[in-house]
């Protein structure tokens, strides 16, 4: 019997593991060139360290080291004083993609998908063939564990090459070493700039940075105040799509539809749950698992037509106006600083909060475009600036009204740094590399409101400064020409020296009063 074309095609079909997919599409994770690969690896490791330290409630002390092994190979070392990682979790965290504790958790955190650090391990493995080395210790009386790991890209499972107990002087913490193909550069998108911006948005952290060449650099903490711990919340009904609602109905432990709505969602009271059931024409004591597809669709539509309170905002932790200014002052020498933290808002049922800050004058160059610092959950966004909702919001703000020059469709120019931070339980990044924010109208509106408030304060400062400069200029004219006027008056009026001094004093007082 002759085989059909379909039979031949069927033989070629096979499952693709997530590791295999990202092996061929590593650009989606931020490894699209050697410069960015180095940055992404450090970023993912530092993000994990900051999250771990904050969850433990300890002020983060983070070491970042880069060692050049050859022309295009580097070793990245990141070490923290966090809680460490228990033995059985180490291989999965560092060598299994899409494994983590934050994907299903609705509270603010730097990581979201459980891809970052394991993708860095995989990239190092692909480009150098070397294993990642991890040392971790969970307490002063615990043994330090050392692992060498690979990612099995066919199965997306960790491959343990070495597992042993070692001596480590730290009481607790984690250290990771990854060899990778990369390129080191300084400048606006370099590692030092990323760490500097991290220090601005996280003024409670101390970072010690050891570059491939040159002296060690320290970014010291500006406060001992830890960020407010964000609380985990349940999903808000407005943010759940139909397919997710159907899945939740099947998975819930609730016995009735009313208790499902009250217990599996936030902000749904007994009264609201009953109203939703009435609008959906469903009995509130129905079993959730027996709700048919059409009934679930009716329930979904009913949710949209019932007024439900916005989700709680204790799940997000903004930097705060005072700490934004402290962070800016610590790293940027300017003459004026201001910041604004907007009230929490919501997009697709997800709470978020926008903050903005401005540093102006001082040592900042006045003949260049302003420097824009973008942050999401305290993490700097260095790439894909043009595609970001933050950039769009800054460009569409009329900065000429606030004392800065601006060409149409461009960032303003002047001696200024503009900072924008979004804190959210789920940041809407445009890609897995987490470099730019999607253009949600609710987010853009809040960013513009924060920028406009900062802009008004900046305009007030610029007006005061210009007035002071004008007054100083007038005063200099008075001081320069008054002696000559005195000589002229003395000759015309035949004044004595004492009378001349008295006349000059009266004249100076008159001019000073008129200047005010």
Largest sheet, order of strands side by side?
5-4-3-6-2-1-7-8
Average pLDDT, all residues: 85
Count of individual beta strands = 16
Number of helices: 14
CATH class of the largest domain, named: Alpha Beta
Secondary-structure-derived class: alpha+beta
Give the low-confidence spans. none
Multimer state: single chain
* CATH topology-level name of the largest domain: Heat Shock Protein 90
What is the H level of CATH, i.e. the homologous superfamily of the largest domain?
A: Histidine kinase-like ATPase, C-terminal domain
**In whole angstroms, how far apart are the ends?**
105 Å
**β-strand amount:** 15-25%
| CATH-derived architecture of the largest domain | 2-Layer Sandwich
The shape is: globular
Q: What does the main sheet amount to? A: 8 strands, mixed
- How many domain modules? 4
Main features:
516 residues, alpha+beta, Heat Shock Protein 90, Helicase, Ruva Protein, domain 3, Ribosomal Protein S5, domain 2, 8-stranded mixed β-sheet, 6-stranded mixed β-sheet, 14 helices, 16 strands, 19% strand
Structure, described:
The protein is α+β, with helices and mostly antiparallel strands. The chain has 4 domains: 18-219, Heat Shock Protein 90 (2-Layer Sandwich); 237-304, Helicase, Ruva Protein, domain 3; 321-454, Ribosomal Protein S5, domain 2 (2-Layer Sandwich), CATH 3.30.230.10; 463-515. The protein has 14 helices and 16 strands. The protein has helices spanning 5-12, 18-24, 34-56, 90-95, 116-128, 191-201, 242-251, 257-264, 270-280, 293-304, 321-331, 389-395, 441-493, 497-515; strands spanning 61-70, 73-79, 132-137, 144-152, 157-166, 173-181, 206-210, 217-219, 336-341, 345-347, 350-360, 371-376, 379-380, 405-406, 412-413, 416-424. An 8-stranded mixed β-sheet has the order 5-4-3-6-2-1-7-8. Strands 9, 10, 11, 12, 13 and 16 form a 6-stranded mixed β-sheet that branches. Strands 14-15 form a two-stranded antiparallel sheet. Helix 3 (34-56) packs antiparallel against helix 5 and helix 6 (191-201) packs antiparallel against helix 11 (321-331). The termini are far apart.
């Amino acid at each position: 019997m002759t085989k059909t074309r379909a039979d031949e095609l069927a033989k070629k079909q096979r499952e693709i593991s997530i590791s295999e997919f990202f092996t061929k599409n590593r650009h989606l994770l931020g490894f699209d060139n050697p410069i960015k690969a180095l940055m992404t690896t450090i970023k993912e490791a530092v993000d994990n360290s900051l999250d771990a330290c904050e969850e433990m409630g300890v002020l983060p002390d983070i070491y970042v080291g880069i060692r050049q092994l050859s022309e295009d190979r580097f070793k990245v070392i990141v070490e923290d004083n966090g809680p460490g990682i228990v033995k059985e979790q180490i291989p999965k965290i560092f060598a299994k993609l899409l494994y983590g504790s934050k994907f299903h958790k609705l509270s603010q955190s730097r990581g979201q998908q459980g891809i970052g650090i394991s993708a860095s391990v995989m990239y190092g493995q692909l480009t150098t063939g070397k294993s990642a080395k991890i040392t971790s210790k969970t307490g002063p009386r615990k043994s330090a564990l050392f692992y060498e790991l690979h990612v099995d890209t066919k199965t997306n499972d960790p491959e343990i090459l070495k597992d042993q107990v070692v001596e480590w002087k730290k009481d607790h913490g984690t250290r990771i070493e990854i060899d990778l193909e990369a390129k080191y550069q300084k400048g606006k998108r370099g590692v030092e700039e990323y760490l500097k911006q991290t220090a601005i948005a996280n003024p409670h952290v101390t970072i010690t940075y050891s570059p491939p060449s040159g002296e060690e650099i320290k970014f010291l903490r500006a406060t001992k105040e830890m960020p407010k711990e964000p609380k985990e919340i349940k999903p808000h009904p407005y943010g759940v799509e139909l397919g997710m609602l159907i899945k939740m109905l099947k998975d819930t432990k609730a016995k009735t539809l009313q208790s499902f709505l009250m217990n599996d969602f936030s902000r749904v009271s007994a009264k609201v749950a009953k109203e939703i059931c009435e609008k959906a024409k469903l009995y509130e004591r129905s079993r959730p698992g027996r709700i048919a597809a059409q009934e679930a669709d009716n329930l979904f539509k009913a949710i949209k037509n019932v007024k439900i309170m916005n989700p709680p905002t204790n799940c997000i932790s903004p930097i705060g106006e005072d700490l934004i200014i402290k962070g800016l002052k610590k790293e940027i020498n300017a003459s004026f600083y201001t910041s604004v933290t907007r009230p929490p808002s919501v997009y697709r049922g997800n709470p978020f909060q926008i903050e903005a800050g401005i540093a102006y004058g001082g040592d900042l160059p006045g003949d260049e475009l302003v420097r824009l610092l973008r942050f999401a959950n305290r993490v700097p966004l260095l790439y894909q600036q043009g595609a970001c909702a933050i950039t769009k919001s800054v460009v569409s703000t009329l900065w000429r009204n606030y004392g800065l020059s601006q060409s149409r469709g461009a960032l303003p120019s002047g001696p200024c740094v503009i900072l924008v931070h979004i804190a959210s339980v789920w940041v809407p990044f445009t890609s897995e590399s987490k470099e730019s924010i999607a253009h949600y109208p609710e987010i853009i509106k809040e960013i513009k409101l924060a920028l406009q408030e900062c802009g008004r304060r900046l305009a007030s400062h610029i007006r005061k400064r210009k007035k002071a400069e004008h007054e100083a200029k007038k005063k200099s004219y008075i001081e320069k020409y008054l002696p000559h006027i005195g000589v002229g008056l003395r000759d015309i009026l035949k004044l004595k020296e004492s009378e001349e001094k008295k006349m000059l004093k009266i004249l100076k007082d008159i001019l000073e009063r008129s200047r005010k």
